[in-house]
Write a structure and sequence with these properties.
153 residues, 2 domains, 6-stranded antiparallel sheet, 3 helices, 33% strand, flat
Length: 153
């Protein structure tokens, strides 16, 4: 039994560390995009939404995955981007969220694009930190504390 507790404690600490590290990287990238990235105007070239969790006869209660493509020019070179936010896959959005996103990013519409000046291919429409980015390090820290508690008790 003691070995199982030891494995559980160490496992929680290791998994917690990985989750915390992943979240910290996302937080850092979000913070950098707010403070060190450049902005340029671009144009939405594609927009698509796919139902990923259909509820038959109830599209307003289904979940959707949004995919977008936009183009922009930096130093006379055209780049294509696909991220709305640092949440790489804009998925599990409600019908209401989908409608809001559709109204904000119409094909042919000019939009501000945030890009990494050291690598313009690294771009996003909504720069900054969102709630999901904060949840990862918090969850990782809780897992590490639980692992320590398992080992100490």
């Amino acid at each position: 039994m003691h070995n199982n507790v030891l494995i559980l404690g160490i496992g929680l600490i290791l998994v917690g560390f990985v989750v915390c590290y992943y979240g910290a990287v996302k937080l850092l990238k979000g913070w950098q995009s707010l403070h060190h990235w450049s902005m340029v105007n671009g144009k939405v070239t594609e927009f698509d939404a796919m139902m990923v969790n259909p509820l038959e006869g109830k599209p307003e209660r289904s979940k959707y995955k949004v995919s977008i493509q936009y183009e922009f020019v930096v130093n006379n070179k055209t780049y294509l981007g696909h991220r709305i936010a640092f949440d790489e896959e804009y998925k599990n959005k409600s019908f209401t969220q989908l409608e809001h996103i559709k109204s904000k990013y119409k094909v042919g519409q000019n939009v501000p694009i945030n890009y990494n000046p050291n690598n313009p291919a690294d771009s996003v429409l909504q720069a900054g930190i969102n709630w999901w980015d904060v949840q990862y390090p918090l969850t990782g820290m809780v897992m590490m504390v639980l692992g320590l508690l398992v080992l100490v008790t």
